[in-house]
């Protein structure tokens, strides 16, 4: 295991510009699940939404890991990122309900993005100093993985033309399996976890931004009691979720930890996916065309997935801040009560949204109290050591 970093890596302005395109992509992906038939999202449409989301997040992750290890904010980085941004616009425009009409455009752009990333690794390979075979091996393995994935995408495009079978998502799954199979190789060149965690946080913030835009629909319809009640509850839910993630990121995560970052980013994939679902679920709550039972289950499942991912981040917490068994038991009990109440009152949206807001803030209070209790214990220990 080798650490070639000379200091803490900062998130560059270039990375923030690049991430802005994903704000647009988040919105395009969310649009997929707003097509309701017979009271809810169809299975095929939801599957398309899941695949689109995973493909986009995988592209973002590939770029993030590359920049984390090798990014220098130089001309090559700028060119590579701007090429990706341009191609991502085509993928975003091709993300639509009638995806068959834009299949070729979407997948050609995706394949070219992967080729561009492989070229970036090739350029970096030529810069590796003599005497660092581990770094050369790391670059070759990652370049090969991405290049094979691009070949799979391009090879499966004519398969769709002949058979009508859209098999290109297999390339994305190949990338997931390959990334985990290469975990030992990826440890040869360590990441800057502080930089990686900040990039993941920014993506989460952008996802919350999409949620904030989505709940704007709660404020339409005049200044009546109904509007104020639902808009206030929706706003409180979003604010509570944001604060819960903020406590974990600001106070619990050990950003000086030595890790290859793979599991941390995997958790964030599901966390971001949960937030995207919650955005849609909140919009469904005041949509009478969506059936009560499925939208209630969708909301509950999205909440639970978000908090499971949030608690899973305890693996990356500072040793003294890792959540104990008592906290987890209480959180499970609260979640069980939440599920039970939502099942009982699923027909009453006034009660439903209030229960949701209460659940979010009970978990938030638990996280806040846990942080404060541990902080006081730590301060007490330091004071005792000082006196000694």
Number of strands: 2
Which runs of at least 5 residues are low in confidence (pLDDT < 50)? 1-6, 380-388
Q: What is the count of helical runs?
A: 13
Structural class: mainly alpha
Helix content: over 70%
Q: Strand-residue fraction?
A: under 5%
- Termini separation (Å)? 39 Å
Provide the gyration radius in Å: 23 Å
Strand order of the largest sheet: 1-2
Write down the secondary-structure element order: HEEHHHHHHHHHHHH
Overall average pLDDT: 86
What would a concise description of this structure say?
The protein is mainly α and 388 residues long. The chain is built from 13 helices and two strands. It is globular, with a radius of gyration of 23 Å.
Description:
With 388 residues, this protein is mainly α. Helices cover 75% and strands 1% of the residues. The chain is built from 13 helices and two strands, in the order H-E-E-H-H-H-H-H-H-H-H-H-H-H-H. It has helices at 13-32, 43-70, 75-93, 103-125, 133-163, 169-181, 183-186, 193-214, 225-252, 262-285, 292-312, 325-344, 349-387; strands spanning 36-37, 40-41. It has a two-stranded antiparallel sheet with strand order 1-2. Strand 1 and strand 2 (40-41) form a beta hairpin. Helix 1 (13-32) runs antiparallel to helix 2 (43-70) and helix 12 runs antiparallel to helix 13 (349-387). The longest helix has 39 residues, at 349-387. The protein is globular and about 65 Å long. The two termini are 39 Å apart. Residues 1-6 and 380-388 have low confidence and may be disordered.
């Amino acid at each position: 295991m080798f650490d070639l970093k000379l200091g803490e890596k900062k998130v560059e302005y270039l990375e923030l510009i690049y991430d802005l395109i994903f704000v647009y992509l988040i919105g395009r992906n969310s649009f997929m699940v707003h097509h309701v038939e017979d009271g809810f999202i169809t299975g095929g449409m939801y599957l398309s939404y899941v695949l689109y989301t995973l493909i986009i997040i995988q592209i973002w992750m590939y770029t993030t890991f590359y920049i984390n290890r090798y990014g220098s904010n130089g001309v090559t980085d700028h060119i590579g990122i701007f090429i990706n941004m341009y191609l991502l616009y085509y993928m975003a425009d091709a993300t639509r309900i009638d995806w068959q009409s834009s299949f070729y455009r979407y997948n050609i752009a995706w394949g070219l993005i992967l080729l561009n990333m492989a070229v970036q690794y090739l350029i970096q390979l030529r810069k590796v100093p003599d005497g660092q075979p581990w770094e050369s091996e790391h670059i070759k393995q990652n370049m090969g993985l991405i290049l094979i994935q691009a070949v799979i995408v391009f090879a499966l495009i004519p398969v769709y033309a002949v058979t009508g079978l859209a098999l290109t998502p297999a390339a994305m799954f190949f990338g997931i399996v390959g990334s985990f199979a290469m975990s030992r190789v990826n440890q040869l060149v360590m990441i800057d976890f502080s930089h990686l965690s900040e990039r993941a946080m920014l993506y989460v913030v952008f996802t919350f931004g999409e949620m904030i835009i989505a709940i704007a629909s709660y404020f339409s319809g005049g200044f009546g009691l109904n509007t104020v009640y639902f808009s206030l509850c929706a706003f409180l839910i979003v604010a509570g979720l944001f604060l819960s993630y903020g406590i974990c990121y600001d106070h619990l995560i050990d950003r000086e930890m030595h890790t290859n970052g793979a599991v941390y980013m995997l958790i964030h994939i599901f966390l971001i996916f949960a937030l995207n679902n919650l955005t849609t679920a909140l919009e469904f709550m005041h949509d009478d065309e969506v059936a009560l039972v499925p939208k209630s289950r969708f909301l509950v499942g999205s909440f639970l997935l978000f908090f499971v991912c949030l608690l899973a981040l305890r693996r990356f917490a500072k040793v003294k801040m890792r959540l104990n068994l008592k906290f987890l038991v209480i959180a499970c009990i609260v979640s069980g009560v939440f599920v039970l109440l939502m099942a009982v009152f699923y027909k009453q949206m006034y009660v439903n949204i209030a229960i949701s807001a209460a659940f979010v803030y009970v978990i938030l209070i638990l996280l806040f109290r846990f942080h404060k209790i541990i902080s006081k214990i730590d301060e007490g220990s330091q004071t005792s050591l000082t006196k000694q």
